[in-house]
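Weekly structure sync, notes
Attendees: PL (lead), two postdocs, one rotation student
Agenda item 3: pending single-chain targets
PL asked that the sequence for the first pending target be pasted directly into the notes so everyone works from the same version. It is reproduced below exactly as submitted, 1886 residues in total.
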Amino acid sequence: MARLADYFVLVAFGPHPRGSGEGQGQILQRFPEKDWEDNPFPQGIELFCQPSGWQLCPERNPPTFFVAVLTDINSERHYCACLTFWEPAEPTQEAVCSEDAAGREEEAAEGGSGRLSPGTSGPPGQLFAPKTLVLVSRLDHVENSLGLIYTIHVEGLSVGLETVVGNLLTCTIPLAGGSQRTISLGAGDRQVIQTPLTDSLPISRCSVALLFRQLGITNVLSLFCAALTEHKVLFLSRSYQRLSDACRGLLALLFPLRYSFTYVPILPAQLLEVLSTPTPFIIGVNAAFQAETQELLDVIVADLDGGTVTVPECVHIPPLPEPLQSQTHSVLSMVLDPELELADLAFPPPTISSSSLKMQDKELRAVFLRLFAQLLQGYRWCLHMVRIHPEPVIRFHKAAFLGQRGLVEDDFLMKVLEGMAFAGFVSERGVPYRPTDLFDELVAHEVARMRADESHPQRVLRHVKELAEQLYKNENPYPAVAMHKVQRPGEASHLRRAPRPFPRLDEGMVQWIVDQATAKMQGAPPAVKAERRTTVPSGPPMTAILERSSGLHGNSARRLEVVRNCISYVFEGKMLEAKKLLPAVLRALKGRAARRCLAQELHLHVQQNRAVLDHQQFDFVVRMMNCCLQDCTSLDEHGIAAALLPLVTAFCRKLSPGVTQFAYSCVQEHVVWSTPQFWEAMFYGDVQTHIRALYLEPAEDRDPSQGWEEPAEEERSALDVASEQRRLWPMLSREKQQELVQKEESTVFSQAIHYANRMSYLLLPLDSSKSRLLRERAGLGDLESASNSLVTSSMAGSVAESYDTESGFEDAETCDVAGAVVRFINRFVDKVCTESGVTSDHLKGLHVMVPDIVQMHIETLEAVHRESKRLPPIQKPKLLRPHLLPGEECVLDGLRVYLLPDGREEGSGGSGGGPAVLPAEGAVFLTTYRVIFTGMPTDPLVGEQVVVRSFPVAALTKEKRITVSTPVEQIPQDGLHLRSCTFQLLKMAFDEEVGSENAELFRKQLHKLRYPLDIRTTFAFTQGSAHTPGRPPRTTKDKGPSLRTLSRNLVKNAKKTMGRPHVTRKKYNPPSYEHRGQAPEDQEDEISVSEELEPGTLTPTSALKPSDRMTMSSLVERACCRDYQRLGLGTLSSSLSRAKSEPFRISPVNRMYAICRSYPGLLIVPQSVQDNALQRVSRCYRQNRFPVVCWRSGRSKAVLLRSGGLHGKGVVGLFKAQNTPSPGQSQADSSSLEQEKYLQAVVSSMPRYADTSGRNTLSGFSSAHMGGHVPSPRARVTTLSNPMAASASRRTAPRGKWGSVRASGRSGGLGGDVGSRLAGRDMRGPPQANGAPPDSGFLRPQRAALYIIGDKAQFKGVRPDPLQQWALVPIEMFEARQVKTSFKKLLKACVPGCQDFESSPTFLRSLEDSEWLTQIHKLLHVSVMVVELLDAGSSVLVSLEDGWDVTTQVVSLVQLLSDPFYRTLEGFRLLVEKEWLSFGHRFSHRGAHTLAGQSSGFTPVFLQFLDCVHQVHLQFPMEFEFSPFYLKFLGYHHVSRRFRTFLLDSDYERIELGLLYEEKGERKGPQTCRSVWEYVDRLSKRTPVFYNYMYAPEDTEVLRPYSNVSNLKVWDFYTEETLAQGPPYDWELAQVSPEPPEEERPDGGAPQSRRRVVWPCYDSRPRAQPDAISRLLEELQRLETELGRPPERWKDNWDRVKAAQRLEGQPDGRGTPSSLLVSSVPHHRRSLGVYLQEGPVGSTLSLSLDSDQSSGSTTSGSRQAARRSTSTLYSQFQTAESENRSYEGTLYKKGAFMKPWKARWFVLDKTKHQLRYYDHRVDTECKGVIDLAEVEAVVSGTPTMGAPKTVDEKAFFDVKTTRRVYNFCAQDVPSAQQWVDQIQSCLSDA
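Predicted structure, written out during the meeting:
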């Protein structure tokens, strides 16, 4: 029985002690005055009576009632029912509060129950003080009694209040069991009190239903999850009663878990600081204090009045695991809103009986009860009975529960199981023999029903209603009882004048009633609560909450069969069979079932706890065990490590007599062994097995070592045994009880010793000197981690305090392995023994034993370690040495590694099928140039294939240490993850033989090579010289002249060249096509600045240093200059006669790189601008990169200019119409004025915009434009008025197609105003279909003469003057950092680096996210726009960013699209040299070539340009002389640092380092190519790999590619690789086969048969199946070899075939010209390269490979000559027997003025009386001829600047002709003498 109420208290308003405005509560009376023994009086009641504080009110409020909850120190809850009413304040009270009564009015109504009416207060100014009646009870049903007391007082009933209070305090009621008690307090009342049937089920009344109504389903669910996962929950409301109900409701939902943290449904205002406590809580606070709760960062706030739940950003509430979350949600909505299901019915039933609020409350609770039953189903199978007597000790195996439920990853359940509430649940409900309740029944018997009902909502609802009935019955066992009868006060009774204040009660009388009752109670027998205790049913075994298919590793019976077969082969000694099956077994062991199967199979081979194996068997078993363990998490949730633990101490091998090695010494490297939770769970599991065995009959006993097996169902489980024992315990004698307790304790103790041994086995490394093992395992040091067992406070202190100081493994070298293991074991022993109730004496004994156990084991291991070293090592595959380039040297020899799959190999047994080439076993080599992996696949089925993957060290973009498992032993090892910007990835695991020191050395050397201190230590400079990594960088002095002298020389030479009177000079003709195709050195007689110079300038004089003479000539020889000459863009002369005819000139103003360091030395500027003005103009531009001309259209004469972006200061001045400058103008203004003049000069330099008088007026401009421009037939400008006709004629004309700046959408990066300006003002007329030009208004006089394309930002607020002839085109382009970010994402998309196909996004999604193609689109888009403007006759200045990234990309693309010359091999080289190298693209900075650039990272601006070229190449395959492979080759080598071409940031830096001109003269070792172009030339002689067979250009074609993203393709350079040989871009490494294919290197000798299997990712497809033309050439070569003829070069064959085809196509000059044939093909792009054409004679099919002929014979002839462009570069020379060669040999010849020395093959022809010279001995084309008739004398010469240094002076001789002096040098003196004699004899013969 229990008291109905413990205390009755009367609390009134009293003044505050410190005299502040607020009052405070005072306890006037309390009954009984003495505390009960079993229940002391709770402190702080006066705070809880008025939670918002004690205040006076100006009017009388109606009484309020609420129940507060107080929790005492023993976690007992006390319910304080508080009834408050107001009485007129006494004068003393009024005086206290008069000063702030006015300000308190709004807070008067306590508890928020709104005032009924403005109360009729007493006299004006009368205040009312609150008074509260409080009833303190441990029972939750006391509301009626206080009302009765108040009614008696207000209504003045004739009942003594003392009697009522006395009766109230003495009334007792039964605790539980569903009894009913009717009581009367002696005031004529009758109260019926029912107790719940089951005490453990909470009572909720209507609180849960109200909570759902206030907050809604989602909010309540998140509060539910928050409370379970120990977050802080705060309720806000203006009603105290609602706060109480909400808290009560939330607690009711948590059943069967009990909330064990702070629980305060109503928190008083004075205690608000409690909210900042660090522990979880559920607290309710009046909404008036909401402001104070705002700054709480980690509190979830539920506003009951507003219906919201606010979760702070830093708080993550894990949701329920699916599918439970969605199922619960839908069932809740069915309960709360039954009409939802019927809302869509055509004929809904007339009415739906909705449950009453009380019933709905129980239904909602039933839903959550079901949820817990589903969540915790089978929990009893994971309980470990550690002790049965004297008290049960139970542990929960959390990992096994999560593993078997399939919820290891689930955040919610993990947190719930680790929480305090669940710990209480286990200790309360884990007991096997106790009273059961509804939850036990549900979880044991209803699980199958719930699973079956899942998909039937109505059946679920029916089950919910059944459960609700039971819950309702529990709360209301007797529904049909007589009603209560309790008096209530009348309506508005509080407004009547109260007869008197609440009286003071007579303490004596109340105390007398209480004493009487107590005396009576003492006589009565104690009421014992009758408990029905039973064995708690365990229910069905656990099932996974959601059957997840394990994807790739779904374990079919076949896989398990493979595992069984392999093990039986191993134990039968059939090693060969086992070896074949092993890879399949290792793959199968990824699955759980296969791992279990392996453990069971191995158990069968253990006899008497021991199984001795031979070495091979031992290796196999260990390998399989390691494979099993590698996927085990530290928790071992599937029990695999637990199953293998007995086995690792059973399997062993004999190393020598008396020395045995056990399997445990080979499987230590797994994290599970260093996890305390794993050992605890194992220990408790084994203890349970042994304790159970204690109590079982011997017949039922079974081998305890097999504790890993699930007990069979007919056997009694440990819980059943424990339940039986607990039932019998009270009946046993004291001695028997003592005996059982001792037996159990000794069982636990013996297991503790056993586990100390086991742990030492698995924690002590075989080589105990190795501290690496422990260093790697944080587990041993970090033991504060949460334990699997649920008791946390019972740590024995004996070792703990010393542990923290000693054990951290900071100083790993001096760390004592044995000490660490001893501490780990001691800590474990402390914990488990304390929890299992082992006596302290035993525990001390254990502590003494542990160090001895460890020491003994270490001694045993030393012998094992010694003997194991004597074993013959396992034969590992021989390391394959990689082929190295000439000059490439190994820095670190092969480190044995495994190359792991990285997510992109179709060939690694992935989606594409085929054998698994990866993982491969081999070695990684670090050379001065590359990182190379060579090896063989680990899968024996793949056979002896070689796997090679390499990339240049310079291309490394990311290096990261990883820990991965080796594919064979499955041991976690150190690894490296190397990613390169050439799209290779090395994901390697180091073999165990590679020490961590070697791995670290590899990383350091790699870093040193990747980021050298100085560019001169890179491979491009060091190849061929001995590699000494530590060599200090040389100073600039060694490398030729310093910059200052060089600059001086440049000036001198320039002056000489200009100051000389003009000598007769050939008029410059742009070189014909045959010359364009030549290598630059070959043009020496064409491009020299002046053909004929005074003899004095040529003969070397002592005054002129060699370096002086080189400089200017070298400048002239640069690519820029050669290209300017080709385009006819100006001359070096400044004489007036030239100035008239040429609008532009070559200015040497920057020859000393003084104006702009990143520009070339010679620049094209308008003829009218003086050099001194350029300095001022340059100040307006970023990096001083002022506008210079880089290309001129041959047809429209419009020029393309480039510059850096404008400086802010220059912009406004430039584009405002300026007045005459005032005399005191600032420098900035004068600069902008100069700038304007400069642009005006550019405009004037265009012939069609300058009128005859040279003024540049608008009228002149328009007339010149209209009259001067008559479209030539070549130009083919379409000026039709009909737009359709325009597009039609466009289609038939063989010009390119407009890629549509407009049609492709302006969002692509061009600002909106560009479109309006170009389409509205300039291009007048709407854009046509597919972006064809608009109608006849296309070229209009309003078109600006010059368009300036710049960043949108720099043109802000600028209004150009309409009279000026330039217009601004602001566009938005991406920045370099965006390119960098985009490239990183592209790299990740193309080479993912991980094999997790499920979690990672798809390739296309990643590609889209990278935005790489969007940037390509923008570039092409802008370039096509510029091409269009240039083509229409307007000049364009591209002025973006600093002028060296996007500007370079756009300008290069524009030239490539506009000028067919740049689409030849020679032209493209010239374009790159001019725009990228000379104009200062920062290759070193963007490629992060040195340590200084490391932080900036790799930004592939040039690669992006090549990608754009590749896109154009795809759309116009017949317009490019070079193949796509050429672009890939450049893409690879611009980052490889193999050649010097792409090093450094500008010509200035290259000169400073002596790089720019050394290529010409001072080469010592001819074997290494320092320039990529030279390498391409050499390679082209041997293979057509760079040549595009479809090349058949139209000379005038301007290309306009489509630029929409949908038209762009991902470059296969990013995605393809060939593992057979590695990247195919270093050709020397492919010497295996004499005739490499077009695309990629061979993968071994030529195949014998015609057919072969091509493995994706391993072989090169073009190698296996070359294109038709390569195949024909190969066939031709084979036949020639068979006939015994020397095979001819590919180029000769090719040219012969083309020539024959031409003749065949035009026998009488009237054949169908193939150009017309090609042009009339409907598809205007001519995307297909080879057309089959029917010849006019007969019906022979011939290959139309060229489009050279045109209908006019004269044109045909000239074009025929021009079409030899391709053959010149590739001249494959045959020996010319037909020629007369009297004497021949190699001589060095000094070129014309300012040309370097060159080695040439000279032929003295006595018949023709000539001295001819060729490039090489086998060259068929003569490079120059010296007519002997003109020779005046042959004299000995002297060495000049740049001459070969090793040659004797006497080997030099000069040949003087009437025209010039030729300087020669032979290889030695005798051969020089011989040459002189031969020439002399020839002269004398003449």
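Discussion points:
- The longest strand covers residues 77-88.
- Residues 1270 and 1277 are 10 Å apart (CA to CA).
Action: rotation student to compare against the earlier draft before next sync.
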